[in-house]
Amino acid sequence: MTKASKRVLVAPSSFCDVDRLPMSRLEAEGWEVIRNPYGRKLAKEELRALLPGVTGIIAGLEPLTRDVLEKSQLKVISRCGAGLSNVDLEAASAMGIIVRSTPDAPTVSVAELTVGVLIALMRKIQQMDRDMHEGRWNKQIGMQLEGKTVIIVGLGRIGRKVASLLRPFGVKLLAVDPAVDGAEEGTQLLPLHEALPQADIICLHAGGEDEILGTKEFSLMKHGVFLLNAGRGGLVDESALCEAMRCGRVAGAWIDTFSREPYEGPLVSFERAMLTPHIGSLTVECRRRMELESVDNLLDAFAEIASRS
Fold this sequence. Notes:
This protein is of the alpha/beta class. It has 2 domains: 3-102 and 284-308, NAD(P)-binding Rossmann-like Domain (Rossmann fold, 3-Layer(aba) Sandwich); 107-275, Rossmann fold. The protein contains 11 helices and 12 strands. The protein has helices at 21-28, 44-50, 66-70, 89-94, 107-122, 125-133, 157-166, 192-195, 215-220, 238-246, 284-308; strands at 7-10, 32-35, 56-59, 76-79, 98-100, 149-153, 172-176, 187-189, 201-204, 225-229, 250-255, 273-275. The strands form 2 sheets. The chain has a 7-stranded parallel beta sheet with strand order 8-7-6-9-10-11-12. Strands 2-1-3-4-5 form a 5-stranded parallel beta sheet. Helix 3 (66-70) links the parallel strand 3 and strand 4 (76-79). It is globular. The mean pLDDT is 95.
């Protein structure tokens, strides 16, 4: 590969904030590194402007759609993360672009955060912490986790890890995932419409952006459920969620992923909505592993291309 063709775009703005080793590996292999200058997820036009001459990308969640790929010189897409819903895989395959991801790296960090936030929601920790900081000694009664029915929507790596962390709490576990034939012992697989009326807690860990919870699905839920979305923003109809929170059908919600980021939507007005800026994988251990794996995947893919020549 010529020097001119060894140009890689590193799209995640926080890449190497934890450890510079992944960047050092690229530089040691003679790669010219182009960084995201915006400090946030790249919009489509910003991405296009950075791609000329780039043959490899360390990708975050920016839109790698067919029209973007067709006007690029990309040979390798190495996703720093698990999901690939932002990549047009059919178009990439047709153009001979190799696509890799890091599906194992985020599992523990996202699952631990999900369980921690769930307990905080049920015990109203966020509201009482705010009261204390504002000088109010205001005790609020919460709920315990033991004995509750939890639905896990999306029984992939993260969903299964969440299930394993929840089992010792003595919950009843239901799972919804059309792509899975069987669940581990202690977890019952059901269709969504059968599982929802039973749920005290709903955890979304599905990939893709297809809506799963809309007005109809919220109408099936019992009063006072807790909803946690660490999957994708598009999984939930936001207006339907807001209405469910207004009427008390949803007692508390945690949302870590949004269709548009940074988020400035209507959920910010709900005290019982805990909103975090897409931090599921944002631990030192996870970021280090994910970034190193994404660099190794990129270098391995180019070595594979070179071996064909």
